[in-house]
Amino acid sequence: MERTFIPVATLGDLDERGRAVVDVGGIRVALVRVDGRLHALEDTCPHRGGPLSEGDLAGPLLHCPLHAWPFDVRTGQCPE
Questions:
Q1: In the chain, where the domains are located
Q2: What pTM did the predictor assign?
Q3: Average pLDDT, the chain
Q4: Residue 1 pLDDT > 70, yes or no?
Q5: Most CB contacts within 10 A, which of 7, 35, 52, 70?
Q6: Domain 11-72 class in CATH
């Protein structure tokens, strides 16, 4: 998979938790800082449509606020 970087925000756009939500080509993308690195993943949970950016973060796992499914911010995948 080719990685492409698209400038969508500055570090100053992140909130106190190190998060921001941006629009990239009509898709809501959550930006999440974990251990000093920024990660981007689609902000919408594929199961129930919850906003992942509002979920709890445990290490690299961001949990959907609707049903707690975890998503790895490094890959965007659900490890379960």
A1: 11-72
A2: 0.87
A3: 92
A4: no
A5: 52
A6: mainly beta
